[in-house]
Design the sequence.
């Protein structure tokens, strides 16, 4: 055992979350998005699979359960020592809502004692069921306490908000969010903006066009920060794109984290747009992906 090991055991707080839900709802894709920061296709899970993450001093054991019929009887037992249970639902697969309801209600004896988070996944698809429709379809009004959140494990929409909720249920503590990004713009290699200013919080008043003209003039320069009044604009390049984020210096932002966030977004975009390698660029796709991912940064 050893002295160091035993101290480690005493001082490391371990928490367990179990991810249940029908096969193909996206459970494994969620775990993989949390690990890789982007979407990766997976083969179906056989039995169960454990992933461990250290987050702000807490060791989180994520048990990803197989969703096929044969494996569903494992769920209840696995939940018994967990602090939080996730039930994932494919919000696009209305034809399976009844089956999902039956499986969720089989867990009701344990769910009375555990924090339950329902994740309505595949929000990138259309037409998607609204949250109210899912609440009704799963008969959730009869569940004493639960949270429900829309996510997409493909585009990343809502992943950080969902993880923050899970972390809070596990630990009773809010994950500190040091990012306070006020606007995101992604440009092509020629410095042309690929995203509009629609979803930006503070890009009125000419800031958007000021950034655009700055980028076009200085695309090849090494400059990676620009200060405009209280706003600090950070630039980062990836192989085919350039991203910029705006932070306000008075917000006490952790600049390193903000830069890492921008970097993750660019890696995700490069990964999701393999056509960039062929010198092809789908502006609508990039704008959509940025909008979806922005929920993790703003
Ligand atoms: N469009 C879309 N497909 C997704 C999403 N999440 C997962 N998928 C796909 O759904 C299928 C099942 O995902 P998987 O994670 O294996 O489901 P699991 O059986 O619940 O673990 C795979 O083909 C995934 O690529 C999502 O948010 N949007
Ligand atoms: Mg799986």
Sequence:
């Amino acid at each position: 055992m050893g002295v160091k090991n035993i101290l480690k055991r005493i001082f490391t707080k371990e928490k367990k979350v179990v991810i249940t839900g029908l096969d193909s709802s996206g459970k494994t894709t969620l775990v993989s998005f949390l690990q890789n920061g982007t979407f990766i296709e997976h083969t179906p899970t056989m039995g169960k699979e454990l992933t461990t993450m250290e987050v702000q001093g807490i060791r989180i054991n994520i048990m990803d359960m197989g969703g096929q019929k044969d494996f569903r009887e494992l769920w209840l037992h696995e939940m018994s020592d967990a602090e939080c249970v996730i039930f994932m639902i494919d919000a696009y697969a209305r034809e399976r809502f009844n089956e999902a309801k039956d499986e969720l209600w089989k867990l009701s004896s344990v769910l009375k004692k555990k924090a339950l988070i329902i994740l309505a996944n595949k929000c990138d698809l259309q037409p998607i069921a609204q949250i109210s429709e899912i609440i009704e379809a799963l008969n959730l009004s009869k569940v004493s306490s639960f949270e429900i959140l829309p996510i997409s494990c493909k585009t990343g929409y809502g992943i950080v908000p969902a993880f923050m909720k899970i972390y809070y249920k596990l630990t009773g503590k809010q994950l500190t969010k040091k990012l306070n990004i006020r606007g995101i713009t992604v440009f092509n290699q020629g410095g042309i903006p690929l995203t509009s200013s629609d979803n930006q919080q503070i890009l009125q008043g000419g800031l958007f066009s000021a950034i655009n003209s700055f980028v076009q003039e200085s695309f090849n320069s090494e400059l990676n920060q620009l200060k405009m009044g209280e706003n600090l604009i950070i630039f980062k390049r990836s192989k085919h794109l350039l991203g910029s984020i705006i932070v306000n210096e008075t917000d006490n932002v952790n600049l390193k984290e903000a830069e890492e966030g921008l970097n993750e977004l660019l890696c995700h975009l490069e990964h999701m747009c393999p056509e960039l390698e062929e010198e092809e660029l789908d502006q609508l796709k990039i704008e959509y992906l940025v909008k979806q991912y922005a929920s993790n940064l703003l």
Summary: The first strand starts at residue 13 and ends at 20.
